[in-house]
Amino acid sequence: MRQVNCLLLFVFLFLFLNCGWAQQPPRMTIRTPEFEKIAAGQKAWILADTQACYQATELLAHPEKYPFAPAGTEKPNYGYTDVVYWLYFELENVSTSDIDTWVEVDYPLLDTLHLWVRGNDTTAYFLTGDRLPFDARPMNYKNFVFPVKLKAGEQKQFLFRITSEGTMSFPVYVWSPMAFTESSNATQIGFGIYYGIMLVMAVYNLFLFFSLADRNYLFYVLNILAIILFQVSFNGLGYQYLWPAFPALHHVSVPLFIAVLTLTSLNFTYHFLEVPAYWRRLSYVLMGGMLLALIEILVSLAAPYRFSIKLTTITALLMTLTIFFTAVYVHRRGYAPAKFFLLAWGIFLLGALLSAMRGYGWMPNNFVTTYAVQIGSALEVVLLSFGLAYRINLLKQQVAAAALERERLEKEKEREQKEFIEAQNRRLEQLVAERTAEIEKQNRDIRASIQYAEKIQRAILPAEELIKQYFPDSFVFFKPRDIVSGDFYWFSEREGKLFLAVVDCTGHGVPGAFMSMIGYALLNQVVNEREIDDPGEILLQLHKEIRKALKQEKESLVKDGMDIALCMIDTQKQSLYFAGAARSLYYIQYGELHEIKGAPYSVGGFERGKKRTYPTHELPLTDNMILFLASDGFADQFGGVRDRKFMVKNFKRLLLEVAGKDYVVLGKQELQQVFEQWKGDRKQIDDVLVVGLKVEKEVLVRHAPQNVTSNVL
Questions:
Q1: If we measure between CA atoms, which residue out of 498, 482, 116 comes closest to residue 490?
Q2: 131 and 233: one domain?
């Protein structure tokens, strides 16, 4: 009776736990189209189908009724097994937009891979694997990638059925297309660097073989090529680029090239370490290993994959240990080049061991274990190249030993020359110190001059108080990159017409400051002396005057110009007139941000083809309208977590936030705070200038002249 009670208690607990677990399906949600990556393995369910008896339709209909278990890891790895594995998860788009997703299985050596994607009314089916031609894959990529679209509010079920004679490893990720593209590009760059190193070393050592006629270099080149072939077969690049139409070759490529790599490594070891000269019996062991590798090459073409991969992997590990032992023995016998060989093979051995243990499921599937062989082989190739070079240098040293006596006789003369040189060096050091002090003084004088130039430049800029007479709620955010600036703002009033310009001159620092002085003077001349009111005509005249001043009508070396946003506000007509040269006017009216773009070219600089024109735009003023003029320094500043530009769209969004404050003048503090936070510790790349003002028609009316006729347009 006690046993029956225990059994009933066990069944009750099992049902309770199972029901509790079933109430939490492996569902992942996407809340925004800007998501990047979801590791599905962390929440997915996995079912080990030891009898290969389950059907996809049944599992999709009622997954909670089947013995699924939580994966519990981002990268499931079950080593070599005959078991069929099912992986199940759900994905729900809770955003209000349709989202494109790419589902990736990040292991390219799976034999067959079925995927069912079940939505509200349809079920999509994919079949792929390395037993099928490469063009059968949904996307042209070394791993298995499946494009799936999720409509707004849609939930889909994902069910994988996976079989493989090799390592049963299936990390699954859900990507946004953009994030996947960025990640795959970075991976391809890494592979490009790795294979570039390998190919460069192969070509370099082949060149040395033809130059020195030393067969060790040829054996080494063959070994490098074997490493490359093994790597491209292991990471799927070979199937993608070299033999995509031959799935049978791809299926046997990994054990085949492991055997080839074992053969070339043993052959290179045999000759480079001159093993017969140190231990003849050990040389027979290496020769036996080469014979076994030749047999394995034939076996891998005919035997089952499971058998050949285990055989070649175990043999490779044993031969790697043998090679390492051989290097230790030869090094202890006094063969100097063996130290490079020992270090190189020690690193490669560690990488091979980590990779093999990952294949058997004894190590987790992560970046180190996945790319251990690539990292170890790259370091091995470089170190062995050093070893070959050291071997050649050792031969040269033996030849140079005959010249030691002559060198001894010349040492006295060299000593005298050394003393003379040391005396000259002391004199030179003294002269350098004197010259350095002189240069430092000149630098201080130059810096003092530039700082004084800054005072002059700021002195000619209009005082903010002058602008506030007409626009009480206004600000100027001015932050030069260097001491002096190539950006400047200009303000003038004439007969009830208010002129405001934000100018971005070519360059920054001293060159930009020179251009700003020219621009400031020309603006005063065109507007105040010639009394031109039309902003478009002002820019055209400014363009001509700059070209004339810098002699740009001819083939001058000076190509500088200016980007300008220029406004004229007629206080009597209560209208704004704007023209721009590669700069825009931003204004906020009734809570919405608008942009008036200027002409797509600067003022000044070379003029090729069609003559430049700068259209004038008229805009009626409304009370509480907010105007912004800015250079490109804020939007072009690099910063943030990913070290990217701030961008114009973010700048516009920030202006809209600033305009929402009670007082626009507070926007200067917010702009400065956002800019400093975005820039962080990075260097400011350009001058920054932003002018913001709120239109108060009552103030403008007080400044409007009486009985004055405007000649604008």
A1: 498
A2: no
542 and 455 within one domain: no
Judge whether 451 and 476 are in contact, CB under 8 Å: no
Is residue 412 a part of any domain in this protein?
no
Sorted by sequence, the CB contacts under 8 Å of residue 620 that are 6+ apart come out as 574, 575, 576
Is the pLDDT reported for residue 360 higher than 60? no
Task: Kindly report, residue by residue over 520-530, the tens digit of the pLDDT.
Answer: 899 999 999 99
CA–CA separation, 226 vs 260, rounded Å?
6
What domain range includes position 34? 22-175
Is-above-0.70 flag for pTM? Answer: no
Q: Could you tell me the two tokens for 72?
A: 């519990």
Are residues 129 and 98 both part of a single domain?
Answer: yes
Structural domains counted in the chain: 4
Q: Are 639 and 682 in contact (CB under 8 A)?
A: yes
Give the distance, in angstroms, between the CA of residue 427 and the centroid of all CA atoms in the same chain: 50
Beta strands in 658-709 (DSSP E): 688-694
Is the same domain home to 453 and 469?
no
Residues sharing a CB contact under 8 Å with residue 277, sequence separation 6 or more, in sequence order? none
In this prediction, residues 334-344 reach a mean pLDDT of 78
Strand pairing class (27-30; 84-93): parallel
598-644: per-residue pLDDT in tens?
999 999 887 776 788 999 999 999 988 999 999 999 999 999 988 99
- Tokens standing for 210? 């033809």
pLDDT of residue 323: 87
- Whether 300 and 447 map to the same domain: the answer is no
Nearest to 260 by CA among 310, 307, 294: 294
Q: How far apart are CA 379 and CA 542, in angstroms?
A: 62
pLDDT in tens, 383-441: 777 766 666 666 666 666 666 667 777 777 778 788 778 878 888 888 777 777 776 76
Same domain, 248 and 304: yes
**230 and 157 in a common domain:** no
In this structure, is residue 420 part of a structural domain?
Answer: no
**Helix runs in 461-508, H state only:** 464-470
What is the token pair recorded at 349?
């051995």
Element (H, E) at 343: helix 338-359
Cα separations in angstroms, 441 against 429, 451, 484, 509, 510? 18, 15, 21, 21, 19
